[in-house]
Amino acid sequence: MRQVVLDTETTGLSPENGDRILEIGCVELINRKLTGNNLHFYINPERDSHEEALKVHGISSEFLKDKPKFAQISSELLAYLNNAQVIIHNAPFDIGFLNKELERLSLQSLTHYVTGVIDTLSMAKEIYPGKRNSLDALCDRLEVDNSGRTLHGALLDAELLADVYINMTRGQDALLIEVDQSDASQEKTKNIDFTNIDLPVIFATEDELQKHEDILLQIDKSSQGKSVWRLLHSV
Q1: Which distant-in-sequence residues (6+ apart) come within 8 Å of 8 by Cβ?
Q2: Under 8 Å between Cβ of 100 and 16
Q3: Contact between residue 153 and residue 8 where contact means Cβ atoms under 8 Å apart
Q4: Torsional sign, CA 123, 95, 113, 70
Q5: Residue ranges per structural domain of the chain
């Protein structure tokens, strides 16, 4: 499975009011492993950044004036994203800007080129309800080193988000065991008779049951009473 973690930096907050993309960073994952096949562009947005946006990314108009315009990098970007699942933190923001840039070139929206979009902000809100779920907060919570992040940068943020995503979904690793087909084809199925094996049944102690109940109560509290087991028990 090919995934691309994507981040953008922009001149402001509203593509509908003329704000533009000035940086794009992409990090490739194959079967949840970083490949190093990354993509990064600085882009001439053909306008200045708002003061507040400049404080976030620190990329000046002077630096960007000799960089390619979005139209010049669009083909390479879409070829790179083609048929990949895209991972974005607060996806509606970045997708809104990308779709506006594509619209200016009379091209179809981003979802036409990719197989799907994962919004890690929405995912984090479900996993950590009621907590701060900014990229910095998730890095701290999941022990991802973001000490080099003094300003926002699209490629650095995409690299951090890739680590955050892998850590947030690390339970899925068991579903992605790679099998050497050449070895597997040589294996013969062996039938084992378990009928004469007396398997012991070990029951939980009272202390273990109480600790289990305490954890369920904590989860139930975090989900505001929406835990599946509570709902089924009340039926």
Answers
A1: 21, 23, 24, 25, 94, 97, 98, 154
A2: yes
A3: no
A4: negative
A5: 2-175, 204-235
134, two tokens:
């900014």
Q: How far apart (Å, rounded) are the C-alpha atoms in residues 235 and 232?
A: 5
Centre a 10 Å sphere on the Cβ of residue 12 and count the other Cβ atoms it contains.
Answer: 19
Residues of the chain with pLDDT under 50: 174-185
- Write down the H helix ranges in the chain: 51-57, 61-64, 70-81, 91-104, 120-127, 135-141, 154-168, 181-184, 206-222, 228-234
The per-residue pLDDT for 11 is: 97
Would you say 69 and 101 are in contact if contact means Cβ atoms under 8 Å apart? no
CA 13 to chain centre: 21
Q: Are 26 and 80 in contact (CB under 8 A)?
A: yes
Cα separation, 145 vs 151, in Å, equals: 15
| Whether 57 is catalytic | no
Nearest to 101 by CA among 68, 53, 63: 68
Architecture of domain 2-175: 2-Layer Sandwich (3.30)
57, 89, 152, 233: the active-site residue: 152
CA nearest to 154, candidates 42, 78, 77: 42
Q: How many residues does the chain have?
A: 235
In this prediction, residue 203 carries a pLDDT of: 84
pTM: 0.73
